[in-house]
Write a structure and sequence with these properties.
heterodimer, A: alpha/beta, two-stranded antiparallel sheet, 12 strands, globular, B: 11 helices, 41% helix, 17% strand
Amino acid sequence: MKNNARQRGHLGTPEQMASSESRANVGRWASRVDMTTHIREDVGFFGPPGRRMFGCTHLPLHAPSAGVVVCSPVQAEFLRNYRREVLLARSLAARGIAVQRFHFRGAGNSDGDSSEATFETMCQDALDATQMLIGATGVADIAFVGTRVGGLVAASIARNHPGVPLVLVAPAVDLSAYFREIFRGRLVSELKEVARGRQKSSRAPMEELRQTGMVDILGYPIHRALFDSIVGRSLVEEVGEGPRPILVVQVGKDDRVRRQYAALMTRWRESGFAVDSFGIDLNEPWWFGGGVSERRVEPIRASALIEGIGHWLLGQLSS
Amino acid sequence: MRTAQPPATTYDETPVFFDAEGQSLFGIFTRPTTEPLGLAFVMLAGGGTPVSMNRNRLSVRLCRQAAALGYHALRFDYHGVGESEGAVKGFRLDEPFVDDLLGAIRWIEGQGIGRFVLAGSCFGARTALAAAPAVRRLDGLALMAAPLRDYEMGQRIGTRLARELRLRDHLRRALQPRVIRGLFDPGERRAYFRVARAKVRAMGHGARGRSPAIASESFLKPLAEVVRRGVATLLVYGDQDDLWGELQQARQGQLGEILQDGASYVDIVTIPGEVHGFTRIEIQDAVADSILQWLSKRADRGTPGLRGG
């Protein structure tokens, strides 16, 4: 394993790979090559000064056959899903597909504050990441992967690329219900605090959001700007009418396809979309830490998730 | 106190890969935005959110603001986490990732910076503490919600109850339907075994007329060494942390002697609420303020880390 090695092979250094338009906006990068899996990872910052995003480009050591952009979920879900996205990207790169991961502005290692993030800025960030990938690799075939709210972003920007494959992992279908679920998590946590003899917040989450512009959900802020920009949206509208291959990945203990996903997939199939789905049997507490027993099975289930998505994408991108 | 500068941004940061016992780990190195102190601030995340950014970007904020005080800063992903190589099975407090941290320190030394302030929360605090004796030029140690006992992540409450509950209470709990259901799950069975083992140990201590030590050897020994060397140390707890209650109990024993020896340079700060887990933003803000105030005082002293200095 070479650390910080700049491979001057087919793809050159990150600076060389960047198109002339984006070269000025390429920040510092670190590269690593894994000769076991034959992949290279370029990690760094890109974008205009003051608004740079953290990104990681996972590349095969030969010219990639296609590219995938990964749109992460937000806040607790972002950290919870992080390693799965890294392993997915490595798995795809080992199979010849370039992958661009990134942190939205205001999140992770990127510039900006979370209070500035909206659905629109998230979509712009994803578009910038897509341009970064295309500029760096020259790939013509692209696919998008999005988890939870990241699925909404992926669906929205995929509309710029008619017919390209879209993977939706545990997608939020109805965004009002999505936020209600998150707020309920805080209420459950507060009930536990009350049971321990501690006081709970005097305000309900929605009231706190309205009055202060931000609600604290287990140490993560949900800001009014993000909430307002997302809550009225729906996955159906963001996917749009143009048919494309879609993979829906259900994560949870359900034996059957959830009603909301089943209805969605039926609607898409009737509109000419090629829709596939599979489920991962994993009790995923997106906003809470997993229990000891779940942490032990998680690597196994994560492998199944990654294999399933990777297998589907390879099939779509090679056809 | 140094004049506050704007925190660093990505402009001041460099992503890095470094070697730690044959594995490639990832970190982000932040350069000072003001006159450098020649000190590196290394921030370690807890086991609950082990990624280098930490919950709600707390480590990102601390590193960027430490840089505004003149520190170089590094936050990194443990092996098997984030962008790093490898795989991790679990986070045990008596098996902290010392090799990861020492790899980070060697990398920083390779950049020409030879003095360190280590900081961490929960598992990260124990990792910093365990590695501290091996860090030659350790100028400061900041431990946030550092557990005193040894257990695997997720077992804090179970092992505490093992000590505190009477045997008949344990037996009553064991007959609850959800516990019986758990016997069919291998992971839950292992967890029950650990609780049972902790209870047996506690009973053994009781039978010998000794009250079981709350603070483990792997907590006390490096802390004693750090105190002996005169390293400025900050302990931050929430007044509602059960860990704070355990610290208070442990002060009746050997821990009290260690803290007494280091009275002039060991600071203990309590914050209203529960620090462990950083599950409230106002707590994160209060912890960050405490750490940064302490870092600022260390920066103002010029040659921090010496006994009495």
